[in-house]
Amino acid sequence: MRRLRIARVRAVTGAFVAAGRSAESGRTPLVAASTELLGVSPAIVRLRAELATIARAGFRTVLVQGESGVGKEVVTEALRRSSPRAHCAYEVFDCPAVPEDHLESELFGTVRGAFPGAIDKRGTLERGHGGVVFFDEVAAMRRDHQAKILRAIEGKPFRRVGGVASITVDVAVIAAAHEDLAALAARGAFRHDLYYRLVRDGVLVIPPLRERREDVAVLARHYVSAVCGRDVTLEPAALDRLRDYDWPGNVRQLFTVLRVALRIEPQTLSADLVAHVLRGFAGCGTSAAPPPAAGSAHVAGAAHVDTCGSVRTAALGASAAADEGRTYAAYGATLDHIAEGDVDTATQRRWPGFHAITARIQRRALLDAYEAAAGNKTAAGVLLGFHLSPGEQHVPGQPLTESRRNLALRKFRYWSSRLGIAASLARRPSQAALADLCQPPQPTGDGASPAAAPDEP
To answer: Could you tell me where the DSSP H helices lie in 58-86?
Structure first.
């Protein structure tokens, strides 16, 4: 069994070496772009060697770092396919895409009854048992969540949400980040112990495309031949234009530029066409746009490609750019500063956060339903649809069963407690009760107002 694994690792590693040699000789293999580590630059050659060494020795935790668009997922897939766990389970955990209050249930799993609507479900770690778990953009996690992940990847037992049984898994972890985790740890924005755990078996740093310009032509030829699947003439001047650009979006931006250009002119990639498409990225990052062609008007715009492949050009005139600049200036911070997390107090008041806005809307809906139901929590839950299962439609005229009424009441109480308004609802009289209190006293039969009843001894 061990000999078979070693042979498999050598075979996959040999494929990457062959790909690198064919790229160096100018011949690009016709394979899928998602599995290629192409390039002839010393940085990519060194990266391929480091990847093969880590995969051959086996790993438990590896950190992949690089700017956005450099191909962190490509390196991750290459590392996984080169490892002894290539044919085992593979799970991807997209850290920014998972809501903060759902992280534990998605990562560790749930048991039925843990919360309303919870079912018995395996989490990402359980599904990846024996294989590889990829944490994409791990720096986006909160510090308290980082502590929970640290415990899990160290092999310590954990429990599902609402469960009592301890679970231990055997997973290899690959974490990716576009930020410098060492710098974040030094500033206290990332846990030191998790950082040292992630880099235990190696760090693969992918250089940006602007630092390996000799790879631009290799990647362009590969994209045209492997992805387009047809003969396209690549003019040397066009490749020079691509090589001279700074590529703030790295390989992803390069492929986008090629896709846009080849949809405009499917047969030939010329220097003028490349300059025309690159002009649409003039406002991206800090790289300088190529000079406009002679006799053409320079328009600051952005070229976009939707999923259907249609090209849409959104022109941003000087007045629009000025208005946008005034908008961000009114917030007291530039767009770059906001993207780096430097947000002032005025901007935070204007944008309190998606989850805070959502919670505010949910509180308002609960209060309105409570008022409309005259303080009846079961009726309020029915008004909010808590008696229905996800995707189920209410049938008018159909009487509610006792179980559905109980479900509406339980969910209303749960969300009232979770959103922090349960105590205020208990002290909050309904509108009907307030209306009764505001009614003037009714006269008695003899025309006199009823006297207050004396206190009983």
So the answer is: 72-82
Residues 191-219: pLDDT tens digits?
Answer: 999 999 999 999 999 999 999 999 999 99
Extract the runs of DSSP E, i.e. beta strands, from 86-207.
Answer: 90-94, 109-110, 121-122, 132-136, 172-177, 203-205
Tens of pLDDT along 309-331?
333 333 334 334 444 444 444 44
pTM beyond cutoff 0.70: no
- Distance CA(423)–CA(433), nearest Å, equals 18
The domain limits of the chain are 60-207, 213-303, 320-350, 354-392+400-436
What H or E segment, with its residue span, contains residue 28?
Answer: none
Residue in the structure block whose two tokens are 């630059």: 41
Neighbours of 423 (CB within 10 A): 10
How many helices (H) does the chain have, and how many strands (E)? 20, 11
Q: Where are the alpha helices (DSSP H) in 291-430?
A: 318-331, 335-339, 345-350, 354-372, 377-383, 402-418, 422-427
CATH for the 60-207 domain, from 2.30.130.60, 3.40.80.10, 1.10.520.20, 3.40.50.300 = 3.40.50.300
Residue 207, token pair as written in the block? 């250089």
Three-state secondary-structure class, residue 297: coil
Query: What sign does the CA torsion over 325, 327, 332, 337 have?
Result: negative
- 32-60 pLDDT, tens digit per residue, is 334 468 899 999 999 999 999 999 988 99
